[in-house]
Amino acid sequence: MKLLIDFFPIILFFVAFKVWGIFTATAVTIAASVVQIAYLRMRHGKVEPMQWVSLGVIVVFGGATLLSHSETFIKWKPTVLYWLMGAALILGQLLFRKNLIRSVMGAQMQLPDTAWRTLQWSWAGFFAAMGLVNLWVAYTFDTDTWVNFKLFGGMGLMVVFVVAQAFYISRFLKETEGEAGTASDAAHTGAAAPKDAQP
Length: 199
Known about the structure:
The longest helix is centred in the C-terminal third of the chain and has 55 residues. By secondary structure, the chain is mostly helical. The chain is built from seven helices and no strands. Helices cover 88% and strands 0% of the residues.
């Protein structure tokens, strides 16, 4: 359900583009993004900062697209959003010594500091690369190809990257489980020793 809510504006953009064209699709996306934020606000009582940023970017660049009747602005929107997310990760680390990836995922898993730093910088690099790839597709191919890439290509690359991250994380989770098992065995052995020593 959460995944559907996250991709709700993108899916509607894709469908509206195929039926009515880029400008109607842009207007639909702006409306869908507003509905998405309103739903999250009512459902959870709060909206994450990056979701507000995403709404602001789509309203500004989508609005500019409709006012100027130019596709350029809406094609830049994914790149600007990717780069803003990457910049947030980098600035959070360099200026505030805060690992934002750890802040989001730290409650679900325990990883060493080096692993959290690797995740932080790899996500920042991924967002930077995705911004460049979006511009390359936007300026190299026609609008129809760019829209297809926006949904299928962007989602596909995200899935591949997340799977790669999962494989990387799994190494440390196995080590943590192994250490926990060793500690548990040692505790049981220590608890049993006095009993075994009795005549």
